[in-house]
Amino acid sequence: MRITKRIGRGRFATAIALTAVATLALAGCARDTGAGGGEAQSGECERVAPPEVAAADAQPAPATPNADASGLRVALAYDIGGRGDASFNDAAAAGLDRTVEELGLPRENTREATAQQGESEDAGTNRLRQLASEGFNPVIAVGFAYAAGVGTVAEEFPDTQFAIVDDDTVDLPNVTPLVFAEEQGSFLVGAAAALKTETCQVGFIGGVDNPLIQKFEAGYTEGAEAVAPGITVNSAYISPAGDFSGFNDATRATEIASGQYDGGTDISFAAAGQSNQGVFAAANTAGQRAIGVDSDQYESPQLTEVRDVIMTSMIKRVDVAVFDYVNAVAGGTVDQLPERFDLANDGVGFSTSGGFVDDIAEDLEAYKAAIIAGEIQVSATR
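The structure assignment produced for this chain is given below.
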């Protein structure tokens, strides 16, 4: 069953339609969540207008003043790919760079370490332990794969502050979760896809079929269906739950994306880490478009050759979370950080680089305002 939201000017009506879930011959965990049964479609989708929200109801949260971080020693433990992945880790690196530029954190007081493909859980734990033992405080773990390690090492070093991106399962007084409303930003790029599609068929490609990446799919599908209730959303995952190779398998991503484009999809949203590069390559070959994730991937130096297929990116502001966390540690205000980073505090959003969504920016901002105001509640589950 899927819920379709028909959004009119100033009011909502909800229609519930039963739909068959078709299995795509793209991957073992592929599926079609749209109304078109996965068949190629042509022509314009029937689209509905975004809601109108009073400006006073959609005000973002006020910014926190900058503190002095010159006395801190800050370490980042990256996930696979590290700085230079043009995605998730690069966003964290940008947050660290900003602390150096704006908070007075000396560059020599920073340390960066990176996970390796196929390493054991103990390797991640030892990486965190080494950073803490060298006196870095705070230590920021970039990615949920570090959850067990953070839990272990934070108990061993109770006077060291730790933060972990994308995980809130470690319940210790010296551990701060940095989690996001990925579904909210994904709703906006789903709306963008529905406003731009010429086939009324769009795609989603996730790196790993787990609850975190399912949030991207859920929001994207809901945003697309809010704009065009009859749209088809073809969804696929590169690897199943527990197999993290999907975040670093550009070849498989190209295969899946090529299948989607051959089947009639003309825009596909990739939430797959470094594998996104394979989706962009497929879009470039097919003469179609794609949507990036985490960073503004149009601006990534590593993606210059395919940048013109990236019509927008769902920006997950890991840079904001890293910066705000270090700022809070420096100012002694960690307890005032938001429970999650969302549209209201600039934790997620969409990019406009390249000008490909300039003509629909007003509609996207209207949806953003409605989400901030609470008039649209975006589901985090598919």
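Interim note for the steering committee: The first helix runs from residue 88 to 102. The first strand starts at residue 2 and ends at 8.
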